[in-house]
Design brief:
heterodimer; A: 265 residues; mainly alpha; B: 325 residues; six-stranded mixed sheet; four-stranded antiparallel sheet
Chain lengths: 265, 325
């Protein structure tokens, strides 16, 4: 299995490098919204002193860490796999004795992330010097806890996206379903604004949804803003959602493959 | 011994959305989508023993590829059953997938953006091929298909034929016991076609692998297969020896004669005249197999003949007749 992963990595890494210019564009597009939120909220907080207790430095901290967390936990499986189901190019992978989405698809996404994180690093450093955030609240413990939390969050997000992608076995309109999923992330993950600034009822719903695990929870872990009880609760939620999303993906995939029509080729 | 491939009443019906062209129809189709059932394969039954090479023939849309896709596990059938090497293909058991191959079309096992060599190494890992076995197999494939010069280029920069060679090689690295080949020589030049044929025959002889192949090149089929299965409009039309085919479906022979003054003789009294473009200075008539001796002696007695040949009609013609019967 190790050799399979290694060779898959080599292939996918080489493939991603072929598209490095494309990838850079993608990264810049990706960075636009958080950087705008960062700029807008910081100037509001500067003008008013604070927003609901959030100072300018709180916002800078939040979005600077968000840039990293978002890179770690997001995925692009719908773009790399959806069309394969629709145009039949999945066939070659489906008859290989390894699971297409849980091996090749996963490694492909990780190779993509490795490259975008490389691209993000210089941009992040520039932003760091521009905004000069006070990161004194960050502790090693927080970072060490955030790493497994982000790993699990990536898997949860990947499995949920993979399940939506697998709906392509039924319909060609998976992209609109995925847009809806993105809207959910925007609303409940803390990507738009820190969740504590959202209306109370959204915060309460968000607690039970997987989306805050992708962004808000790891940011709070890194910034050291959570009590022990909240940390434990977060990991428990992550385990539960990992289980749910694995079951969900497995169910959609199994039933979807039965409907695969291997068109085209 | 139970057969390697056993197919029982296998059927596949596709549901294809259907609508007329135009805006109005597009709107109506949105609310009330109509489906048409396309019966691609209908109750096909056959079995293939270990080591056989069987040609799978039929016109476009006959259901050949659909059948191969079901047998390799890509498609779930809508009816009937099949076992290959004791497995139900569409359960996609890794052990099954490791022991068979499906070579189909141009883009299958190779990643377009990187050299084929990298995809080969990936396959080595995926199929758990030990290093020395991999090297040995690669060497054999390279000798037959001259792969080495192609290995370092990104697959997208290879020509159609070069890509096909690499596809076939990639599909055989794990030495499968069962081969499903959909048009394995498509896009290849004559030398390439002959090489692939020789390779398949040799592979079959050495490993005892079972091969089911479709091809539009009749030469592939006549060179490799003793047995053919013909399907037309999803139904099995013929299953048997390639030599029996002409006897059963078209019990005719072709008599070709070269005459000293060809134009002055009318051969239509002896049998149906047929054209043969390859040999224009000869005249050909088609006669029933049982009449061959009688008509030949009449021809020899009546006409100034320099040369006479008696042959089976071309297999293409026979199959054409089988489809139309």
């Amino acid at each position: 299995m190790f050799l399979i992963i290694k060779r898959l990595w080599q292939v996918n890494w080489a493939e991603q490098w072929q598209y490095r210019a494309n990838l850079l564009m993608y990264l810049l597009y990706w960075l636009v919204s958080p950087i705008i939120y960062l700029a807008v909220w910081t100037s509001i907080a500067n003008a008013k002193g604070s927003v609901n207790g959030f100072t300018a430095n709180d916002f800078i901290q939040y979005y600077m860490v968000l840039l990293i967390c978002d890179q770690f936990t997001s995925n692009i499986v719908i773009h790399t796999f959806g069309y394969k189901i629709q145009d039949g190019s999945l066939s070659g992978e489906l008859i290989r004795p390894i699971h297409p989405m849980l091996t090749n698809g996963l490694v492909n996404n990780i190779a993509f992330k490795a490259l975008t994180i490389m691209g993000l690093t210089p941009i992040w450093i520039i932003l760091f010097f521009l905004y000069n955030p006070d990161f004194s609240s960050i502790s090693m413990t927080g970072i060490l806890l955030a790493l497994p939390a982000m790993g699990m969050a990536f898997l949860i997000g990947y499995l949920l996206s993979a399940a939506i992608t697998s709906l392509a076995f039924w319909t060609t309109r998976i992209y609109s379903i995925h847009e809806f999923y993105f809207a959910m992330i925007l609303l409940f993950s803390g990507q738009f604004v820190p969740l504590t600034l959202m209306p109370k009822f959204i915060q309460e719903i968000a607690q039970f949804l997987p989306f805050q695990l992708l962004i808000y929870y790891p940011i709070q872990l890194i910034l050291g803003k959570l009590s022990t009880e909240q940390i434990v609760q977060g990991f428990a939620m992550a385990f539960i959602w990992l289980g749910i999303s694995a079951l969900l993906f497995n169910w959609v995939w199994r039933n979807g493959v039965k409907r695969y029509s291997a068109v085209g080729a | 011994m139970s057969p390697t491939i056993s197919v029982e009443q296998l059927s596949k019906t596709y549901q294809v959305p259907e609508r007329e062209g135009g805006f109005g129809a597009a709107v109506r189709g949105f609310f009330n989508r109509k489906y048409k059932d396309v019966k691609a394969v209908q109750e096909v039954t056959f079995s293939i023993a270990q080591g056989e090479i069987v040609g799978f023939l039929g016109p476009n849309g006959a259901g050949k590829t659909t059948t191969l896709k079901m047998l390799s596990g890509l498609l779930h059938p809508t009816g009937g059953s099949a076992t290959v090497l004791g497995y139900t293909p569409w359960e996609l058991k890794p052990d099954y997938l490791r022991s068979m191959t499906l070579v189909m079309g141009q883009r299958n096992r190779l990643s377009w953006d990187i050299p084929a060599a990298d995809s080969f190494l990936l396959n080595q890992a995926i199929y758990r091929i030990p290093e020395d076995e991999y090297k040995q197999t690669y060497k054999e494939l390279d000798e037959l298909l001259e792969l080495d010069p192609l290995m370092k280029k990104p697959v997208r920069n290879l020509s159609l034929g070069e890509r096909m060679k690499c596809e076939i090689a990639a599909g055989l690295l794990h030495r499968p016991k069962v081969l499903f080949l959909d048009e394995p020589t498509i896009g290849l030049d004559i030398t390439g076609q002959v090489r692939i044929r020789e390779f398949l025959r040799e592979y079959n002889k050495r490993s005892g692998a079972t091969i089911l192949l479709t091809s539009h090149y009749m030469a592939d089929v006549t060179a490799l297969c003793e047995r053919i299965i013909i399907i037309h409009q999803g139904r099995l039309k013929y299953d048997g020896g390639i030599t029996d085919l002409s006897r059963k479906i078209a019990p005719f022979k072709l008599i070709g004669v070269r005459l000293s003054d060809a134009d002055s003789h009318d051969l239509s009294a002896y049998g149906t005249q047929v054209r043969n473009d390859e040999d224009a200075d000869k005249k050909y008539i088609q006669v029933k197999a049982e009449d061959v001796t009688r008509i030949t002696s009449r021809l020899l007695a009546d006409l100034p003949i320099h040369d006479i040949t008696i042959t089976d009609p071309p297999i293409e013609d026979v199959i054409e007749q089988a489809f139309n019967s």
